[in-house]
From TrEMBL, chain B:
Protein name as annotated: Glycerol-3-phosphate ABC transporter ATP-binding protein
Keywords: ATP-binding, Cell membrane, Membrane, Nucleotide-binding, Translocase, Transport
PANTHER family xref list: MALTODEXTRIN IMPORT ATP-BINDING PROTEIN MSMX, TREHALOSE IMPORT ATP-BINDING PROTEIN SUGC
NCBIfam families, alphabetized: PRK11650.1
Listed GO MF terms: ABC-type transporter activity; ATP binding; ATP hydrolysis activity
ABC transporter domain boundaries: 4-235
Organism per entry: Terribacillus saccharophilus
InterPro entries named among the record's database cross-references: AAA+_ATPase, ABC_transporter-like_ATP-bd, ABC_transporter-like_CS, ABC_transpr_MalK/UgpC-like, Mo/tungstate-bd_C_term_dom, NA-bd_OB-fold, OB_MalK-like, P-loop_NTPase
GO cellular component: ATP-binding cassette (ABC) transporter complex, substrate-binding subunit-containing
SMART domains the record matches: AAA (SM00382)
UniProtKB/TrEMBL annotation, chain C:
GO terms for cellular component: plasma membrane
Protein name: Glycerol-3-phosphate ABC transporter permease
ABC transmembrane type-1 domain residues: 84-296
Keyword Membrane on entry: yes
Protein species of origin: Terribacillus saccharophilus
Record-annotated membrane-spanning stretches: 21-44, 86-109, 121-141, 169-190, 221-240, 278-297
SUPFAM superfamilies: MetI-like (SSF161098)
Record Pfam families: BPD_transp_1
Length: 442, 374, 307
């Protein structure tokens, strides 16, 4: 009996060690192909899509094999990367969200893809300029855009009809927005069964509402001309955003949906609010799961302001620096494959993210999809209508996570009755301190 | 005056098997009553039923004429001493002794006075501020006793209080407890498995075996006229020698070489019946060879200093009997010695149920000195 | 009877030190596994954290020595002060309530009644639930539209409260879920302590006729005091380390009302990449908990009645 137990324990330990595979090192597979690891943060249905695309790539040629690994959310995946970056265990390709761009550039662990663009004389004009420019600094393309999204105004067309509003005319200016929200808010006594508008407590939405006014998040051309030193989002443009939220909340037409995307979307589906800001990547899911008609419109802007468009969100693909030459070639080849029109069309259709290659929109599957989901076209149009500037390029700072947190705290304090200017100034002061600290990096 | 009465008391845990079977008992005020029996015979169960810690399945319990079956323990006007003393480790001796006295609506001063009184009586006066863990076993036992005394309850129940003490201390405490009981006039129901304690302390006692009362009576009565073989072998140390024998009008045949004259003289009810004969070790005497009833072979001797216990066999090697002789006798194993039996001390028991059929002794303690040494 | 025994030969002077050295090394060999494990997983991280707290550091290590600057910044920052407040409140909300609840349930299920085993299993079952799974369930319960609490509030006529989005309620909400999650363990420990109390003590009390509350105060609680001391100390230490439910339920918000120190450390180290500041906060937290535990031992242990 004792021997049996001892034997089983040994087997168990062996089993455990066999189970924990190291999936961060790239290497060579048995059939001579160069294998590289691809870390991504696409979960759920998106992961299925990614896996399909990777499988198709692997079977389309016989020099390289890509192994995709899901690493959790953008934040979690970046954290994991930080532990292996610069070592031989780093994955060849990693998907990093847009807010991590400066961090990645500063880290010195990545290989700017410009090198391969130059070597091959790759034609970068086939990329959507608004997207690729986000990941360029001083004319150097650092990473390869992969999944980009923009914010949109999603609204409940049925609720619009009931409130006597034209469901095909979404509000564009803040006053139109407030009016519509007032009409859409349904109250019985002191209980509100339907609110007009909700904005997720997420820093990105604030940045977008600021950028569409042409506002800068930080100084020095949004941090793109030398490093940023101060926050500039607490100017009148930023204040307009906070005043909008604060004012509407006070009037009872604004709903606080917290910080969780799923919670917000669930509230929208159950009709808690009639309008909300969402990412273009979530539109397809909304349309599929809602039992009402979903409308999508451009991001609203203050009255008397010429809308400048939106900053692209989402993520891009980064190549590791300290890996073997053949692995870098493999990574570049994979990236090129991903940016072809067919792959981008498939990806756009399945995920709702933008195609980085505008030629993808000519593909049949895209055209068919747009007929089924005309809302998707709106998101693409908004991007094409964006005026390129450092404002709509988006800020380039290494302390985005912390800065976004400060904005979130500021937004939350509005619901407690804090004065919009005071809240914004406080956030700006905190960001200034963090910027100063962050500038003293290695 | 009847203080405590048990009428037809029964106890069952599962509704089918009775662990206590039909106990009837009447105790007088001021009596020291002992419940004695081997482990598991149910004596503690009976005590706990009297205390109210176990529900009574059937039968009645009366205290001072009032039916107490359903009364909670504190309404029964009794106190209890537990085997492991149940002292509160976080309270000192004084607090332990006066624990719960406040429920009897006694003033603080009165509580203190009673406590000092009891402490004096039991020699605890200097230990009042100590915690139980700083006391020896004997002292703890006295604290438990003091706690019972201060309640001034007329009935005190004791559940094997001396079992955890060493032999010397036990002997001393036996005497102390008895003296206190007499002095205060408390009715005490005392449970023990030690027949010596029972014999020395009881006014009356009850032998219990597997939930049934074997015999109730005064210690000497039980000793001299045990109601059955169980009582006969339980009481008395070393135990009574019991053996099967044939009885006929001519005599009692112990073995082919040993026949005793029939002591029953006129009473021949047990004639020719197969009986068990019982005789206590101290009634097997040394004899001159001519007057011997039998010559027996020694298998073991134990010299205690005051007396000698001799284990011997009659004829059948399986039956070993013990004789107890005063003094220091030196025998070797294998010696053959002549013995005779004191015919005034023979007991006859039925073979099937062990019931006492006949005893020579009429129960009165023998006043005359017995022939011990020749 | 006593034979004169031959004296055993006395070991010569030279062989004794060798034997001592061998015994010494042997002793260390037995200690080695424990020392290695503790060293790698406890002592090294601890000292490294203290070291890092004096630097500006990111995920890959320290890069600039700044002395006490991290500490100065933390101590003067509003954010840390609200973290301290949140932590103290959280501990005060969860520890006494949790232990009282566990004590109450343990007292209820201490009797030897038929079928009591089911209840005992039920009450200790929260021990088997992972923090993550429990937190997700509570998150749904707190959901303002579809959650159980809001439905009940609605049914009772109160307006729906956004439990996790309202800074006045968020900490209470998280505390409630924490009390539920920790109740199982505390319950089990206290029940064990109760079962160990000699029943004769209670029987004597019954014979004496003291009330149930008196027995509770004068017998149960004093006899339970070693167990209670243990569970209080351990609960305090655990409360300071609570992370999982905050990460899932509120992420430190809203308005940093649930941003307990441990969560602030996590955010700084892994989201903001500010490992130096996080390490400094960790050191401060360590000393606070150490101080609190020392205080508990000094003041509380006197009241404990060991047997």
């Amino acid at each position: 009996m004792k021997r049996l137990l001892a034997g089983l324990s040994v087997l168990f330990v062996l089993f455990l060690t066999a189970c924990s595979s190291t999936d961060s090192a790239s290497g060579t597979t048995e059939d001579g192909k160069t294998e590289i690891i691809f870390w991504h943060a696409m979960g759920g249905e998106l992961e299925a899509s990614v896996n399909e695309i990777v499988d198709e790539y692997n079977s389309s040629q016989d020099k390289y094999t890509v192994k995709p690994v899901y690493q959790g959310s953008y934040e979690e995946s970046l954290t994991k990367l930080n532990t292996v970056a610069g070592t031989a265990d780093a994955p060849a390709v990693t998907q990093i969200f847009e807010a991590g761009t400066k961090q990645m550039i500063d880290s010195g662990n990545i290989q700017p893809v410009q090198k391969f663009i130059d070597e091959e004389n790759y034609d970068t004009s086939q990329w959507e300029e608004n997207i690729s420019s986000y990941y360029q600094v001083d004319g150097e393309q650092y990473s390869m855009p992969f999944n980009s999204s923009t914010p949109v105004l999603a609204y409940n067309k049925d609720a619009f009809k009931e409130a006597g509003l034209d469901p095909e005319q979404a509000p564009r200016t803040y006053s139109e927005l407030k009016e519509a929200a007032e009409k859409l808010t349904i109250k019985e006594g002191d209980k509100t069964s339907q609110y007009g508008l909700s904005i997720l407590n997420y820093g990105w939405f604030f940045e977008e509402l600021l950028a569409t006014q042409g506002g800068m998040f930080v100084d020095n051309e949004n941090g793109r001309e030398g490093g940023a030193t101060k926050a500039s989002f607490n100017d009148e443009k930023g204040q307009k955003v906070f005043e909008l939220i604060s004012g509407m909340y006070e009037e009872g037409t604004f709903y606080n949906s917290g910080q969780n995307w799923d919670d917000m979307r669930a509230s929208f589906q159950t009709g808690t609010m009639a309008m909300m800001l969402d990412s273009s990547a979530g539109i397809k899911g909304l349309v599929d799961n809602a039992d009402f008609e979903v409308g999508v419109a451009y991001l609203p802007h203050p009255d008397n302001v010429d809308p400048q468009g939106v900053i692209i969100g989402g993520a891009s693909l980064w190549m590791a620096k300290d890996i073997e030459e053949n692995q870098q070639q493999a990574a570049w080849d994979f990236m090129k494959y991903l940016s072809t029109a067919e792959v981008q069309a498939k990806w756009h259709v399945e995920s709702g993210y933008f195609a980085i290659n505008p030629a993808a929109y000519e593909e049949d599957i895209v055209k068919q999809e747009w007929e089924k989901y005309p809302q998707l076209k709106v998101t693409v149009d908004q991007l094409h209508d964006t005026v390129p500037s450092t404002a709509t390029q988006g800020a380039l700072i290494s302390i985005f996570p912390e800065a976004r947190q400060q904005i979130v705290t500021g937004m939350e304090s509005l619901y407690q009755g804090e004065d919009p200017k005071a809240a914004l100034d406080k956030a700006a002061a905190e960001v200034d301190t963090v910027l100063e600290k962050g500038s003293r990096s290695r | 005056m009847t203080h405590v009465e048990l009428a037809g008391l029964k106890k069952s845990y599962d509704g089918k098997k009775n662990v206590i079977e039909q106990v009837d008992l009447q105790l007088q005020q001021g009596e020291f009553f002992v419940l004695v029996g081997p482990s598991g015979c149910g004596k503690s169960t009976i005590l706990r039923m009297i205390a109210g810690l176990e529900p009574i399945t059937d039968g009645e319990l009366f205290v001072n004429g009032k039916r107490m079956n359903d009364a909670p323990p504190n309404k029964r006007d009794l106190s209890m001493v537990f085997q492991n003393y149940a002292l509160y480790p976080h309270l000192n001796v004084e607090q332990n002794i006066t624990f719960g006295l406040h429920t009897k609506k006694i003033s603080r001063e009165e509580q203190k006075r009673r406590c000092l009184e009891a402490a004096d009586m039991l020699g605890l006066a200097e230990y009042l501020k100590r915690k139980p863990r700083e006391l020896s076993g004997g002292q703890r036992q006295r604290v438990a006793l003091a706690r019972a005394i201060v309640t001034q309850a007329p009935l005190c129940l004791m559940d094997e209080p001396l079992s955890n003490l060493d032999a010397k201390l036990r002997t001393r405490m036996r005497s102390e407890i008895r003296q206190i009981q007499r002095k205060l006039g408390i009715t005490m129901i005392y449970v023990t498995h030690d027949q010596t304690e029972a014999m020395t302390m009881a006014d009356r006692m009850m032998i219990l075996h597997e939930g049934e009362a074997m015999q109730i009576g005064k210690p000497l009565d039980i000793y001299n006229q045990p109601a059955n073989t169980f009582v006969a072998s339980f009481i008395g140390s070393p135990a009574m020698n019991v053996m099967e024998a044939d009885v006929s009008p001519s005599g009692i045949v112990l073995s082919p070489h040993c026949t005793l004259p029939n002591p029953m003289k006129g009473n021949v009810k047990a004639a020719s019946k197969n009986v068990q004969i019982g005789i206590r070790p101290e009634h097997i005497l040394f004899s001159a060879p001519e007057q011997a009833d039998a010559v027996v072979e020694v298998v073991n001797t134990e010299v205690l200093g005051t007396e000698t216990l001799i284990t011997f066999i009659l004829d059948n090697a399986k039956e070993q009997w013990i004789a107890r002789w005063n003094g220091q006798w030196q025998f070797s194993v294998g010696d053959r010695i002549p013995i005779r039996f004191d015919l005034d001390a023979i007991h006859l028991f039925s073979k099937d149920n062990g019931r006492l059929l006949w005893a020579a002794n009429d129960g009165q303690p023998n006043q005359t000195a017995k022939e011990v040494l020749r | 009877m006593n034979d004169a025994r031959e004296l055993l030969p006395v070991p010569s002077q030279e062989s004794r030190p060798k034997r001592n050295l061998f015994a010494f090394l042997e002793g260390w060999l037995y200690l080695l596994p424990s020392i290695i494990l503790f060293g790698v997983f406890v002592f090294y991280p601890m000292f490294r954290t203290i070291y890092l707290s004096f630097f500006l550091a990111d995920q890959m290590g320290p890069f600039e020595f700044v002395g006490l600057e991290n500490y100065q910044y933390i101590v003067s920052s509003d954010s840390f002060q609200s973290s301290v407040k949140a932590t103290i409140l959280f501990v005060l909300y969860t520890v006494p309530a949790g232990i009282l609840l566990a004590l109450f349930l343990a007292l209820l299920t201490n009797e030897k009644i038929k079928g009591i085993g089911i209840f005992r299993t039920l009450f200790s079952s929260t021990m088997g639930m992972s923090v993550a799974a429990s937190s997700v369930i509570w998150m749904f319960m707190y959901n303002p539209s579809i959650g159980v609490f809001s439905r009940i509030a609605e049914w009772l006529g109160f307006p729906a409260i956004q439990w996790l989005q309202n800074p006045d309620y968020a900490l209470l909400a998280v505390s409630l879920s924490t009390v539920w999650m920790n109740a199982g363990f505390a319950y089990l420990i206290i029940l064990g302590g109760l079962q160990n109390i000699d029943t004769h003590l209670y029987e004597n009390a019954k014979v004496a006729g003291v009330s149930y509350l008196y027995q509770l105060r004068r017998i149960t609680l004093p006899m339970l005091s070693p167990t209670l001391f243990f569970i209080v100390t351990v609960s305090f230490i655990n409360a300071f380390q609570t992370f999982g439910q905050i990460d899932i339920l509120t992420k430190g918000g809203p308005v940093e009302s649930t941003n307990v120190i441990v969560y602030s450390i996590y955010k700084d180290a892994f989201i903001n990449n500010d490992v130096g500041s996080a390490s400094a906060q960790a050191v401060i937290l360590f000393f606070c908990v150490l101080l609190l535990t020392a205080l508990q031992f000094k003041l509380g242990e006197r009241k404990v009645h060991y047997q």
